[in-house]
Amino acid sequence: MIELYYWTTPNGHKITMFLEEVGLPYTIIPVNIGAGDQFKPEFLKISPNNRIPAIVDHEPVDQGAPISVFESGAILLYLADKTGELIPQKIRDRAEVLQWLFWQMGGLGPMAGQNHHFNKYAPEKIDYAINRYVNETGRLYAVLNKRLADREFVAGDYSIADIAAYPWIVPYESQNQKLEDFPHLKRWFEAIGTRPATIRAYEKAEAFKNQALDVEKSRELLFNQSANTVGR
Question: Which site in 10, 84, 117, 187 is 20 to 30 Å from 123, CA atoms measured?
Answer without folding.
Answer: 10
